[in-house]
Amino acid sequence: MKKKIIIALGSLFMLLVGAAGLSAQESRNNSADGIIGNYFIDYNGEQSKVRCYKEADGTYKFLNYWSKNMYDKNGNIYLDTKNPDKELRNKPCNEMIIMWNLKYDPEKKHWKGKIYDPTSGIRADATVQFTKDNMIAVRGSIMGIGKTVRWKPIAAE
């Protein structure tokens, strides 16, 4: 009898934890401002931290503020040399805007905008949505062909 009660309580606990995780994901996907915050990216051996903030026009931007390998062997910060916009090639890597013009779609519960990959210099369409494990799935695509990378929310720094 005691064992059945423990199993029942354990099952109830797991059910409640799962429901809480789902409701947190749904909550962030249901709110345009749910995307605001800091995120850690680990992609193709590159690690960085980005901050999402809201612009005055109601769109959202992501600023890269830290990268694991920000400095060259002489201690100089890397510049955005692969940017297709020549005027931005002298911008330090910790000041790059990597996603912009994100607009929230309340029907589809996701954000759409533009993304820039500084390792390749490619700009693409972006779609962002929270996953069940509270990460964001960031999909960059050109003409429907693309890749999805998951970013982990982190505390403000």
> What fraction of the residues are assigned to beta strands by DSSP?
35-45%
- The geometry reads as globular
End-to-end CA span: 50 Å
Q: What is the helix/strand order?
A: HEEEEEEEE
Description:
This protein has one helix spanning 2-29; strands spanning 37-43, 46-54, 60-67, 97-105, 110-117, 122-130, 136-142, 145-154. Residues 1-25 have low confidence and may be disordered. It is α+β, with helices and mostly antiparallel strands and 157 residues long.
Short description, anyone?
With 157 residues, the protein is an alpha+beta fold. Helices cover 18% and strands 43% of the residues.
Task: Write a concise keyword list for the protein shown above.
eight-stranded antiparallel beta barrel, 157 residues, disordered N terminus, 43% strand, globular, 8 strands, single chain, alpha+beta
Task: Produce the secondary structure layout.
Elements (H helix, E strand, L loop, with lengths): L1 H28 L7 E7 L2 E9 L5 E8 L29 E9 L4 E8 L4 E9 L5 E7 L2 E10 L3
Antiparallel strand pairs: 1-2, 1-8, 2-3, 3-4, 4-5, 5-6, 6-7, 7-8
